[in-house]
Design goal:
Layout lengths: L2 E10 L2 E12 L4 H13 L4 E12 L1 H15 L4 E5 L3 H10 L7 E2 L2 H6 L3
Parallel strand pairs: 2-3, 3-4, 4-5
Antiparallel strand pairs: 1-2
Helix pairs in contact: 1-2
Length: 117
């Protein structure tokens, strides 16, 4: 399966957020596409990102690495990267790797956008 990406800007109580909707599989083949998108957004001045992973069917270690890299990028600009995920099989990967302590994980885009840092 392929990876689909789309972005939109949303305003919330904490300010503007850029929502990146991700669908499909984030693996060794598709992760570079997500990395490119995150790098481009940060380079364009979007430092508060919400990655909506509700449409993600599969996530491997390469995908996790891209998300961690994105987090480091936005933090270098005092930014934030929040994840939206409510699929148990994907959440399990974050729990097993301990990344639930690194990423704020929300159950909806609205919840993530309205969260104050």
């Amino acid at each position: 399966m392929d990876l689909s990406l789309s972005t939109r800007n949303v305003s919330g109580p904490a300010g503007d957020r850029t929502v990146v909707e991700v669908g499909g599989e984030i693996d060794v083949y598709t992760a570079p596409k997500l990395r490119e998108q995150l790098v481009e957004l940060v380079n364009d001045g979007s430092y508060h990102l919400v990655v909506d992973m509700e449409g993600v069917d599969f996530l491997d270690s390469t995908g996790l690495g891209v998300l961690v890299g994105g987090l480091k990028r936005v933090r270098a600009h005092e930014g934030s990267l929040r994840l939206v995920c409510n699929q148990e099989r994907i959440l399990k990967i974050f729990r097993i790797t301990g990344l639930t302590k690194v990423f704020p994980i929300h159950t909806s885009v609205d919840e993530a956008v309205n969260a104050v840092d």
